[in-house]
Amino acid sequence: MTDRRTLALLVTVCLGQVLLISAQVQSREGLPLIQVAAFDVFARVQRVTGGVTDGINSVWTQYFGLRGVARENAALRQQLLDLGAELQRQRAVAAQTRSLEDLLGLQPQIPDPTIAARVIAGNVSPGTLTVAIDRGAADGVTPDMAVLSGKGVVGRVIAPVSQHAAMVQLLIDRNAAAAVVFERSQSGGIVFGGESDGTLLAEFVPVLADVQPGEQVTTSGQDGIFPPGLTVGTVESVSGAGSPNRQIRVRPVSDFSHIDMVLVVLARPALPGDAGS
Amino acid sequence: MKFTSVLLTVIVAVTIQVTFARYTVGGSWVFDFVLVGIVFAGLQWGTTAGLIAGTMGGLLQDLLSGEIVGVSGLAKTIVGYGAGLIGTQFVLTRPHGRSIIVAGASIVHRLVMIGLLGLIEQDWPGVSWRAMLWETGLNTLAGFLLFQATSALPGAVARRRAGRRTSLSRRQW
Q: What CA–CA distances, in Å, run from B88 to A68, B42, B43, B93?
């Protein structure tokens, strides 16, 4: 009797979930209200667990990780010297660029406002590549805002966004994409995530575009999410060159295996069509 | 009482999942501690508990990951019920025997997920066998540790109580 009741419960629950999936697939929308509520409640738990693990990590690095400090100190001093020299070189290049901009009559680009956020939780479902950050609607974060690391593009903010937490879809997720431009060949394209080896697959690149491995890939700003000129990665391989089935793999510059702090760009780039409106 | 235990198991499993996943994002270390918790609930408390744990855990994962709600829920409901069914049909008391069920559940769950996503997106999402192997291995290890801990805990508590009682009687004597 109990087995029959359990079986009936199983069928009901499965059927209910199939209907739930069908409704969402048809409308192409999730369940925003329930998702935001669940995310908001769990974000508080994530904030606490994130704080506890950070505390443990901090104790570990500060007290137990002192063994290599002297060696690291010497290496950092050397690095500081090298960086000083590099800074001098960069200043010279910047001065040169400024004068060139003046000559061309270009306005220097105003950087968009950003806000720093701490990653408080990882992907709850192994199939999806998302992280939760401790900034939300109260800090001005809305879906489709670009998220960056010190090296380059990390991903974009997706729904649900609660008051003090938001979900970030990483660029390597199977549903993620970004409009890019190949620096050397100046040809455009779109990179997609979802590759098992952590690379991005570039599509919609003109067949005749001469894309070479090692080429820098930056955002073009055409997607209305990522501001132009941000580093995405470098071309790792180009197979089947010259054919329509050419495969361009891009290795992302951001280290997705260790994301601690990120920057959320609080403004979205204006699309060419927006200028008149 | 049983429902509270199942609910607690799911919440603890989801919390552990998000806490550990933070350090392995995008890496090859793929694991699903929620699934381990569901199999644990199924083997420990039977089919209904496994079914409820699977539904709750899966739906919670869907809601928190921003994906289509119900995909993980459906996959985990089936796995939770299956684990409960195996738990009632076979006598599985040893931790290694139970962790084999976790391994099987991990593979079945991943295949069901791939199938469901393929049906929804009308496109075969592709199988990363390496990731599946990692997930199965890590889930099995986590399951083994969990079952080892739960089977050793009552004995350790009893030994401690007995030790305390002995020392007390010695003092009285």
A: 54, 9, 8, 12
- Verify cis geometry, omega within 30 degrees of 0, for the bond prior to A108: no
Contact of A47 with chain B, judged by CB distance below 8 Å, is answered with no
Out of A9, A128, A259, whose CB is closest to B51? A9
Q: What is the pLDDT of residue B172?
A: 56
What are B56-106's pLDDT values in tens digits? 999 998 888 877 888 999 999 999 999 999 988 887 778 888 999 999 999
Q: Which residue of B has its CA nearest to A154?
A: B26
- Minimum-distance CB partner of A49 among B19, B47, B55: B19
Cα–Cα distance, A219 to A183 (Å, whole number): 10
A3 at B interface, C-beta within 8 A: yes
Residue B27 class from Cβ within 10 Å (0-12 exposed, 13-18 middle, 19+ buried)?
A: middle
Q: Which residues of B touch A159 (CB under 8 A)?
A: 66
3-state helix, strand, coil in chain A (%, to 5): 40, 25, 35
- CA atoms within 13 A of residue A219's CA, in its CB half-sphere: 26
Task: Tell me the pTM.
Answer: 0.70
d(CA B106, CA B30) in angstroms, rounded, equals 11
Considering the domain architecture, whether residues A41 and A98 belong to the same structural domain is answered as: yes
When pLDDT is cut at 50, 70 and 90, the band that residue A105 belongs to is low
With a cut of 90, say whether residue B7 has pLDDT above it.
yes
User: Are A133 and A41 in a shared domain?
Assistant: no
Task: Clarify whether residues A129 and A53 are in a common domain.
Answer: no
The whole domain housing B152 covers 2-172
User: How many structural domains are present in chain B?
Assistant: 1
Average pLDDT, chain A: 80
Tokens matching residue A252: 């992302």
Using the predicted structure, report yes or no on whether residue A84 has a pLDDT greater than 80.
Answer: no
Please identify among residues 122-151 of chain A the ones whose CB lies closer than 8 Å to any CB of chain B.
122-132
Please indicate if any CB of chain B lies within 8 Å of the CB of A27.
Answer: no
A40–B contact, CB cutoff 8 A: no
